[in-house]
Specification:
single chain, 43% helix, three-stranded mixed sheet, two-stranded antiparallel sheet, mainly alpha, 12 helices
């Protein structure tokens, strides 16, 4: 059973979170985290860069899930956000000339996850009470959104999810649940090996006071996650313990974000470097 905040009802609509316990008390540990350098998110986790006036010309339909729930999204916005959609809507790579305005079917996706993805495509943000509420963190929703964005090659949204998870973890002083670790590291639909999201989840447990939580939780943790966490703790430089890496733009970008080939950092960091020259 997933761990939940005291007072939450245990049903499918509850937001799952593992509150961190202090070493001296059985109550939830709500210390104030150190100040965060710069603000979440960095520019590369935001939405498409083309001018707004070029993004709203050709509406098309995308059906999602087994029930084929219809979403009406602008073709230009999809192309700007995703190489996957750019290829789907390019007649040169399609089976028929009308593919540029054809209906796209995504039967394996969840409609609720796709709705959050569309929100990011249009706004460049994941500010939604079901995603980043500090009092009810919903890591499982963010993880599922990352998986969908990865499948559809919406790279900026994946980085936005990383920023949102880091922000929520600090605001609520919580970490993902055992069920969440199985989703991230499990063999079935887990996050692919080497992805920055996996590194972030491991680091959240390595830096926060989670020793009693991991030891005494009634649910089992993912085996791969536990192995990676042990290795991370054993290899951690003592100098690293002073500051969590996700709290600065540069380290969060370097360790957890994903970039197009040839781009090693997010745009905002490059702009800062040029400004200093």
């Amino acid at each position: 059973m997933p761990a939940i905040h005291p007072g939450d009802s245990n049903n499918n609509n509850t937001t799952t979170t593992t509150p961190i316990r202090s070493n001296t008390s059985s109550r939830t540990f709500h210390s104030t985290p150190p100040p965060i350098e710069n603000s979440y998110p960095c520019s590369y986790s935001r939405g498409p860069k083309p001018p707004t006036r070029s993004l709203f010309k050709t509406p098309l339909t995308i059906t999602v899930g087994p029930a084929s729930q219809a979403f009406h999204v602008h073709r230009e916005a999809l192309i700007a956000a995703s190489p996957f959609f750019a290829a789907c809507l390019n007649p040169a790579y399609a089976f028929r000339e009308s593919a540029a305005n054809a209906t796209i079917h995504l039967p394996a996706a969840r409609a609720v996850d796709f709705e959050f993805l569309v929100q990011w495509i249009y706004t460049g943000a994941l500010d939604h009470e079901e995603l980043d509420a500090a009092d009810h963190p919903a890591y499982f929703r963010l993880i599922r959104l990352w998986l969908l964005a990865d499948a559809l090659q919406v790279e900026g949204c994946k980085n936005g999810v990383v920023d949102a998870m880091a922000r929520v973890a600090d605001r609520s002083n919580s970490v993902p649940t055992p069920d969440d670790t199985r989703t991230v590291f499990g063999p079935d639909e887990g996050v692919r090996e080497g992805a920055g999201l996996r590194a972030l989840v491991v680091d959240l447990f390595a830096w926060k006071k989670t020793d009693q939580l991991v030891e005494g939780h009634e649910d089992s943790w993912d085996e791969v996650f536990m192995r990676l966490l042990v290795c991370r703790l054993k290899r951690m430089d003592p100098k690293e313990k002073g500051k969590a890496p996700w709290r600065t733009d540069g380290e969060r970008c370097r360790l957890y974000h994903e970039h197009t080939p040839g781009q090693s950092t997010c745009g905002v960091l490059e702009a800062k470097r040029w400004a200093k020259k």
